[in-house]
Each structure stands twice: as structure tokens, then as C-alpha cells.
């Protein structure tokens, strides 16, 4: 099931990019992810940073970029999560499920 998270409630999954900038995890569907980022990244690139769940649980987060579009002052980056262990994926899924999740048809 594809889910979009409204970050107004529940845990917030933020990413601090190692090259600078921040992002919020918006979509998680298996290995497919979408983030709302303060910095762009071109298709084909790999970006990495530190993921923080509600500011407490921290781990490495990497993704391969499939597309990046500018929306207002932010960039929506779509891609595939890399090197996520089952434990980390479950932690992200728990954080996403505790937020205000809205399924996409």
C-alpha cells in the first residue's frame, strides 16, 4: 500500500543530508521513497544522510534518485532506499503508521 504522511501528527522522520540540507520522509512503499528536501539531487545520483525518527532514533539513510522536481521552495525527490536493514525499515514503517497516514488510490 502506498502511503502519504501528514507530518502534523505522530512521529516525524527527518533526514539531515551529509552534503548539507534537510528532508522529510513523505512516502514509503517497500523500497520506494519520496522526500521533501531543501536541496535538489539529480536523477541517477545517490544521496546519503542521517535519518532521525522524532529526533531520537538515528541511523544512516541512503537513496538512489529516480527524479527530482521543484515545488515552491522545496524539492520532491523520488527514488529507492538503499541498504535499509529489516529493522530500520520496520522502524520507518512504525513511524509512518503512527502519523496521520492517507492511502493513495
Q: What's a concise summary of this model?
A:
This protein is mainly β and about 100 residues long. About 10% of the residues lie in helices and about 55% in strands. The chain has a six-stranded antiparallel barrel.
Query: How many runs of DSSP E, i.e. beta strands?
Result: 8
- Main β sheet profile: 6 strands, antiparallel, barrel
Class inferred from helices and paired strands: mainly beta
* Helix content bin: 10-25%
Q: What is the general shape?
A: globular
Strand fraction equals: over 45%
Rg estimate, integer Å: 12 Å
Number of domains: 1
Q: Outline the low-pLDDT stretches.
A: 1-9, 100-105
Overview of the molecule:
The protein contains 1 helix and 8 strands; from the N terminus they run βββββββαβ. The protein is globular and about 30 Å long. The protein has one domain. Strand 6 and strand 7 (74-82) form a beta hairpin. Strands 2-3-4-7-6-5 form a 6-stranded antiparallel β-barrel. A two-stranded antiparallel sheet has the order 1-8. It has 105 residues and is mainly β.
Task: Please describe the structure with a list of short key phrases separated by commas or semicolons.
1 helix, 8 strands, disordered C terminus, 105 residues, disordered N terminus, two-stranded antiparallel ribbon
Topology, element by element:
Elements lengths: L2 E4 L6 E5 L4 E8 L2 E6 L8 E8 L3 E15 L2 E9 L3 H13 L1 E4 L2
Antiparallel strand pairs: 1-8, 2-3, 2-5, 3-4, 4-7, 5-6, 6-7
